[in-house]
Design brief:
The first copy, chain A, is built from twelve helices and nine strands. Chain A is an alpha/beta fold. In chain A, helix 7 packs across helix 8. Chains in contact: A-B, A-C, A-D, B-C, B-D, C-D.
């Protein structure tokens, strides 16, 4: 397929690389030039602006947040100049509201819009092992199924509207944050009774909680090592806020998410905004008067 | 070994059966007679009272809670009449305080005390697949290592004091309750946006959260089927309360556990005390005004 | 003074009436005509549009929320056509962000902007007993001091920026919501132990908590009568959300406000969005399985 | 009347003094001798042990907590040796459970038991301005009405069972803690936006919240001066815990109390256990990264 790709950050670059390797013709655009050059060396065409990347059969978008999506897609008048028959595939984690707005705008231009956010950190993207959550019209998803197949280990179709995929992604990220907080509190309790955090977390994450989310963050909490950040705490706050906003719109109270929001804020106030979001563990330890680092 | 066993309930009976099958000589006692007879048919000796079961090399205890342990062990004057050289192995989920008290009393009688609470529901106990968490003096645990090996898939040694095992068990149960609440909230959010609970939970529990705790309770939350109870909600409240009490003693705030406690109370007030503790999902749905059951 | 007034709702109408009675010349505008006519009969001039009311020495604004302020002030191009030398006085409860934006826009037109939100329900406004919280440049406030004096019992100057007044109002409304929730929980506890809510609340609101906020809402909670609404629950949610947003911007966790937000959402999901915000008491009673109404 | 009095601490001493001044014959006992001597100089008889103070028509008790009441009343075999016809008046703040137990024990000895906890700090007790909350049989309260009248400004009869008074006291103390936390959070928010805490709190506690509880603690929070303690933070935790336990027993969730409990623990972990319970304000400021003290 002829595929455009907007956004070559930590996640976008490895994903775009997989698209290329799968044999698609790729046209890329990124705010800064360096990653475009890298993809260029691998065979991609570099577009002069976002609209120029929207000339093929599909346009994939992996941008940081609502603002970036607005700036690039609406500000860059991508829809207005997109090729007829193109499918828009937004891989970014954005609000339900933006998903609705972009889908509505796309529809005005007769462009099918698929929300396809992904679960997985950059190293998972590099291995092509992402889980892709797709929401949108059946026919549209059918046309890009193999394309999504090229970037992840599995595509989960969760409904025939883009917002279905959006909410699954936001709810899923809330679940990860919740798992981190749970381990942070439980590990503080164990530590206060003389059981080393690492030992405690090994027992639980090898048994009842033997799953990727618990094992990845369990390790960071065990070592109390929150840098470098795989996913920055302030982005964690953003995603939990988006889940809370979605909940508010539909009158769904999310008490755990509310606690998380407060703990993210506390962490940022203490200077941990650019640490990994597992730094919730620092806040939990500090609240209990426990040392921040193992001796 | 010559092994005594007190408490043949949902958990105790299958565990005792494994002890017997592993070739140990077993003397059992239970408050009601029926399960003793069952074990008797399998070759166990039936003791007339708790003290009579404490004549061998080890005494295993699997009772419901602090009160039952107090009544049987202290009320039954088990320590006073125990055989010299016996090792006490308490498999029950009890408070840190009771663990300390029983360990201290045992020490006065020169009896080594091992806390060895287990992770796993009755069907896991039947398959001999429990995870056993052992805390106590090294020498004592060494003497009963093969005995513990006969009842579970693995023994995790978490410290040289019984209370270390106690706290790991309580913190672990808090983590399960927390996982249930997290899924309950997230599933309500997904459902409010038109994504069926079952579909949402399948995505998450097959990927980031592909672990026993999430899969077992995820299924119940997906089907909104909270009966029959594998573990009653009012016992869930008890265990979270024990974690909170342990936290209070050591000045460890547990904000998620506090939310859980309130939600358990709300559930009990609404009549769900004898349902499975995954009925936290009912309360989350009701708070959001969502139907309790799929159409 | 020559005074314009935008917004003659439950609060605006009695306030404008006091301005008129104090001897000022008043020009009013409102989205719907009826209240303009009423004020017209009392001697006010009716403006054809918002901009037409901005011809005097001061323009008072009392609109429902951020959206209404944006629509009327920005959409209505009020600043562009305002008389030179006019002072803008925004009495509305709006976000800190909007306050900043409006103040900045006013400054571009050399118009002094004073935020002057008020504490008090409509009946308090009618009696001229509001408490006015004023923030803005000293010189500007000095020019309108007597005007503010005409609508309330006292003007509290809280800083030389408009946002200072905004934050005091939002924090104050959060405190009221918090008082309601506190009484709701405490009354449920008393009731569960056989102490009638009314009796319990009388003791506390006559002694330690003998203040307007507690007495007004204590009465509604005692009678469990949440209609008609003095202040609608969904507006309570809006104000608590504005406080939370302000907190988020400055990294100030507000755990009580987070709980309130969830309880407001739960109440709205149960159909209480248009009841008085003291209907938090219904949610607290329901969570405890207590009857919603006295027998 | 012939009145005995057990417990001459910060609260007991001024209360006993008022009893004496009202013209009653007083026999006092206290764990340490010094305050007995003081009362002796004022005309009281000093009893050799608690039982010896129980010889008159009424016995007033003002002890620190459940444990002290148990030790003195049960351990001291006071009921067994009390004069026939005596009325027991327990002014202490204790658990609902202890109230039930003591009332039941008293009944076995045909001794009427009145729970009469008080609202007010030591300086209020000195001025004789306490609010007394009385629960117990009508006839019993009638007999001691003037006695209660001598120690407070008003006696509030809240039910014909002692536990009614207990729950009112516990719910009331929860309300005070809640008011402190509310002010702590709101003041942090105001401060983060440049409004001095003192100024913010003055506005609110002079208007909507012009009541003793808000004014007393508002002043401490404004000055961020939490020592010397009028009421120690660790006692605040105790009382909130008693409210939570009473809630748990009756299935009444108390989400605000749960948050308070966590914040008390956090405060104790940070070394504030012996400061005034308004030191909740320190924790709120710290969570927001705000300075602990004004510059």
């Amino acid at each position: 397929m002829d595929v455009g790709f907007l956004g070559l950050g930590h996640m976008g670059k490895p994903i775009a690389t997989h698209v290329l390797r799968a044999g698609h013709r790729l046209t890329v655009w990124n705010r800064s030039a360096a990653p475009c050059e890298e993809l260029g060396h691998l065979g991609a065409t570099v577009a002069v602006d976002p609209a120029a990347a929207a000339r093929g059969e599909a346009l994939m978008i992996m941008l940081a947040d609502d603002d970036a999506c607005r700036a690039v897609l609406i500000g860059g008048r991508v829809l207005e100049s997109a090729a007829p028959g193109i499918v828009l595939i937004n891989l970014s984690t954005v609000s339900v509201e933006l998903t609705r707005e972009l889908a509505a705008r796309a529809q005005q231009h007769d462009i099918p819009y698929v929300a396809a956010p992904v679960f997985g950190r950059p190293e998972v993207a590099q291995r092509g092992q992402l889980n892709v959550v797709a929401g949108g019209a059946h026919a549209a998803i059918a046309r890009i199924e193999s394309l999504l197949g090229s970037i992840g280990q599995r595509t989960w179709r969760v409904g025939d509207t883009p917002e279905a995929a959006s909410i699954v992604k936001l709810a899923g990220n809330f679940m990860i944050a919740s798992a981190i907080e749970t381990m942070a509190e439980a590990a503080a309790l164990a530590q206060a009774y003389g059981v080393p955090r690492a030992q405690f977390l090994e027992v639980l994450t090898s048994t009842l909680f033997a799953s990727p989310a618990y094992q990845i963050y369990g390790r960071m909490l065990a070592e109390q090592r929150y840098e470098p950040a795989g996913f920055k705490l302030r982005l964690g706050l953003k995603d939990v806020r988006l889940a809370l906003q979605a909940g508010e719109r539909a009158h769904v109270p999310l008490p755990f998410a509310s606690v998380l929001r407060d703990h993210f804020l506390e962490s940022i106030a203490q200077g941990a905004g650019d640490q990994d979001w597992s730094a919730l563990g620092r806040a939990a330890a500090r609240r209990a008067g426990l040392p921040d680092k193992p001796a």
